[in-house]
C-alpha cells in the first residue's frame, strides 16, 4: 500500500502535479494588513500580489498548527511529511509535535517528518524524491535514508526582482534595498546547507543575474547528478523568464533527467515576490 505524502503549502505544486503525486497539503495563513489569505489551491495570487504592493507594513505569515498536521496523520497508518526549512518557519516543529501526539495515540504508526532545509521549489524536489522512492518500492526505512541523503545534497537558489518584502521584514536594510533597486542590482540568494537563506552574490542587471543563476547550476552539477536529479523552477508571475532559464539550463547537457516549471504558491509568493525565480536541484 502506498504511503501517503503530506506537505505544507510552501511546497510549490501546479494542480496537475499535485494530482499526479496524490499529495495532501496543510495551509499557511498570510496576513497583509487587514486582508487574510489561506494558502490553498483557491488562493487568489493576483489579489495577494496587489495587496502586498499596497501594504506599507510587513507581511505576516502563520504556519500550520500541530492539530492541522495531526488530523491528516490520524487518517493514515503511515505517512511522510515534508516541510519548509525549520530555520525559516515553525512548520517543521508543528509537524514534529503532531507526530509525537499521533504516535502516543497509535504507537505502531510509521511517520517521518522531513525538514527540507529549503523552501518553494526545493521542497517540491523533496516531495518528488519521495514519490520516486515509493515508485521504486523502497521500504519506509530505505525511503527515509535515501531522501535524507538527498536533502543534504540539495541546492536552492533565488533571484529576486522586488526587494520590498525583504525591507519591510527587516531582512535587508532599507537604504541598501532602495539603492540596489535604483542601480539595477539584483541579489542572488541561496541556502547555506543548513536550512538558512543567505546572500550569495549581487549582480547588476536582471539578464546577467539570470545568466549567473544558470551558471551556478552548471558549477554545482556533475555528470551523474545531471542524469538522476529532477530540477524544479518556481516562478512568481513570470513564466516566460522561468522557461527561458529552463532552456538555458538544457543547453548545458543532453543528459538532464527532468526540468519542471511551476508557479509559486501563496507563501512562496510572499518570499519571492512578483518576478522572483527559485531554482532547486
From TrEMBL:
Q: Does the keyword NADP apply?
A: no
Keywords for the protein's UniProt record, in alphabetical order:
Lipid-binding
What PANTHER family does its record include?
Answer: DEGV DOMAIN-CONTAINING PROTEIN DR_1986-RELATED (PTHR33434), FATTY ACID-BINDING PROTEIN TM_1468 (PTHR33434:SF2)
User: Coiled-coil ranges per the record?
Assistant: none
Question: What is the name of this protein?
Answer: DegV domain-containing protein
Recall the GO molecular function terms of this protein's record: lipid binding
Work out whether the entry's keyword set contains Phosphoprotein.
no
Amino acid at each position: 500500500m502506498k504511503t501517503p505524502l503530506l506537505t505544507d503549502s510552501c511546497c510549490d505544486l501546479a494542480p496537475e502535479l499535485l494530482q499526479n503525486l496524490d499529495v495532501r497539503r496543510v495551509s499557511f495563513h498570510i496576513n497583509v494588513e487587514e486582508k487574510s489569505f489561506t494558502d490553498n489551491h483557491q488562493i487568489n495570487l493576483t489579489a495577494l500580489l496587489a495587496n502586498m504592493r499596497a501594504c506599507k507594513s510587513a507581511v505576516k505569515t502563520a504556519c500550520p498548527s500541530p492539530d492541522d498536521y495531526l488530523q491528516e496523520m490520524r487518517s493514515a497508518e503511515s505517512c511522510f511529511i515534508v516541510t519548509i526549512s525549520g530555520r525559516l518557519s515553525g512548520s517543521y516543529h508543528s509537524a514534529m509535535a503532531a507526530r509525537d501526539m499521533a504516535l502516543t495515540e497509535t504507537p505502531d504508526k510509521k511517520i517521518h517528518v522531513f525538514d527540507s532545509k529549503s523552501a518553494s521549489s526545493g521542497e517540491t524536489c523533496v516531495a518528488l524524491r519521495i514519490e520516486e522512492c515509493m515508485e521504486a518500492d523502497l521500504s519506509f526505512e530505505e525511503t527515509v535514508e535515501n531522501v535524507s541523503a538527498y536533502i543534504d545534497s540539495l541546492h536552492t537558489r533565488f533571484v529576486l526582482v522586488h526587494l520590498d518584502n525583504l525591507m519591510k521584514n527587516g531582512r535587508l536594510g532599507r537604504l541598501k534595498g532602495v539603492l540596489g533597486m535604483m542601480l539595477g542590482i539584483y541579489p542572488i540568494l541561496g541556502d547555506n546547507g543548513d536550512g538558512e537563506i543567505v546572500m550569495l552574490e549581487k549582480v547588476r542587471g536582471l539578464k546577467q543575474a539570470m545568466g549567473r543563476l544558470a551558471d551556478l547550476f552548471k558549477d554545482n552539477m556533475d555528470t551523474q547528478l545531471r542524469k538522476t536529479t529532477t530540477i524544479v523552477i518556481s516562478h512568481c508571475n513570470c513564466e516566460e523568464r522561468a522557461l527561458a532559464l529552463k532552456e538555458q539550463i538544457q543547453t548545458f547537457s543532453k543528459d538532464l533527467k527532468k526540468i519542471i516549471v511551476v508557479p509559486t504558491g501563496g507563501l512562496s509568493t510572499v518570499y519571492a515576490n512578483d518576478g522572483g525565480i527559485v531554482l532547486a536541484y
